[in-house]
């Protein structure tokens, strides 16, 4: 196979500069040695470089040709660097991010902007563990063995967190060069983000599951009462804030506000765990109050505003339940089996054996 290549004098290697022109040069393409040139370099080659490449491999020795080609490719690379950004074809549309998304974006999302590295994040979690154990020690006067047991459990929580962190970081590094894949990836961080926002050492943590087992009976009673009081106080504080907003929005009378507050306290349950969605949890709890009881307190216009507000909490139910913010549902009432209902205590007659009263079961 042959091809005709025409070039200007400036493109020629030094060995050929004595010639004024080479019109209609016939070049045998089978002699070209492309194996020494990386494939990406061939793709980026300009027409001028291709011309020089053909002539070089034809007229020069292999060593001289290799040196010349390397100089030509360096010049081509320099020309590419001078190319304007607008010459890059449709980078945003393709989703490709040149250089990749910086890892700082990943760290910022994981830690919600509180720290900027895994080392700082680990130090922060360790500090939280120290404070948690110190608070339990203040209440229960822990022994050294009890403190060590709780610290081991808390350290296990931190280790388990970073195992998931490491796995997600590897996934991020695989997709960081494609904006579309990164956008889809961010949702994978949500469980870890929730734990950082609401606190790693929550009711699902190894630490708080070990606490009741590590304490003796007297310590456990003190700890559980203190925990209940603190959670109740926090729940009532969140409820009070919402009722103040409701008072301003609905224009409640003093009597209405007092009655509505008592009604809400009667029905609202303590969240399973606290966090950035406390208000949504309280609104969901308010949506569970029977409307009939609320209508006894509010007029028609106020009721419409109330329904719109609690609908926000109801709309968040699936999210709140999946992330374990909502209180655990009360156990379902066990319906006795038929044979159990048929048994009657001694001395009491069955209803079906009871003689009918005059006029009963007639008609």
Structure overview:
- The protein is mainly α and 363 residues long.
- The chain is built from 17 helices and two strands.
- Strands 1-2 form a two-stranded antiparallel sheet.
- Helix 13 crosses helix 15.
- The radius of gyration is 38 Å and the shape is flat.
Summarize the SSE layout with pairings:
Blueprint: E1 2-5, E2 25-28, H1 39-44, H2 47-59, H3 62-81, H4 91-94, H5 103-110, H6 118-140, H7 144-175, H8 179-185, H9 190-198, H10 206-214, H11 217-250, H12 254-267, H13 278-287, H14 291-295, H15 300-315, H16 317-322, H17 338-342
Antiparallel strand pairs: 1-2
Helix pairs in contact: 2-3, 6-7, 7-10, 11-12, 11-13, 13-15
Sum up the structure in keywords:
single chain; 363 residues; mainly alpha; two-stranded antiparallel sheet; 17 helices; 61% helix; flat; disordered N terminus
Order of helices and strands: EEHHHHHHHHHHHHHHHHH
Rounded mean pLDDT is: 75
Query: Helix amount, in percent?
Result: 55-70%
Taken as a percent bin, the fraction of beta residues is under 5%
Low-pLDDT segments, ≥5 res? 1-48, 54-60, 78-94, 331-363
Order of strands, main sheet, comes to 1-2
Question: How far apart, in Å, are the first and last alpha carbons?
Answer: 110 Å
Radius of gyration: 38 Å
Work out the number of β strands. Answer: 2
Rough shape? flat
Number of DSSP helices?
A: 17
Please identify the structural class as seen in this structure. Answer: mainly alpha
* Main beta-sheet annotation: 2 strands, antiparallel
